[in-house]
Amino acid sequence: MENLFLICLIPPASIVEDVDKIRNYIADEFKVYESLKRPAHITLIAPLKITSGATEKRFFSALSTAVFSDAFTQVLSHFNAFPPHTFYLNVEQNRGIMSLQSEIKKALNPLKLDSQRDNFKFTPHLTLAFKDVKPPVFESIIKAFKDRKFKRAFTVSGFSVYKHIDKKWQPYKEFQFRNPQENPSKRDLFNS
Question: Is the pLDDT of residue 192 over 90?
Fold first, then answer.
């Protein structure tokens, strides 16, 4: 058994439609298609390979401990890039998203699913083009979008787990936030 899971935020359908229009425009205009193979998403934890049923059970159990959070507003604003090949929508850093990613990472840490990512700096973004973008095309995309504006906001009240099935990322499980006061690991010893 070997499964690949991605932990992410999926914007509401109306925003995904707008993002997909941009991704399709980039694909048609610049002949780069790799990003269209994935759903429009904000990666919280990069894909993790799980090789046993017992580990998968512990994985989902650990994720259920990271749901004690207040909802927050997430803003997508304008365009940015990781040279020389990744072009993306900027995901504004805020306490909500940074805390959520940190809590998920902390919950998964004991499972040691990917120790090489321990020093990974989380830069939230929503990828529009990558992987098959060559440097000259990258420069053309940057030039085409340098004066364009984009801004959308949405409420985040949970996170998603996608599973790689038949060479596609498919929605697999949703985790809705729960009241932080209900978190059993944070109960006050004197107010129980």
Answer: no
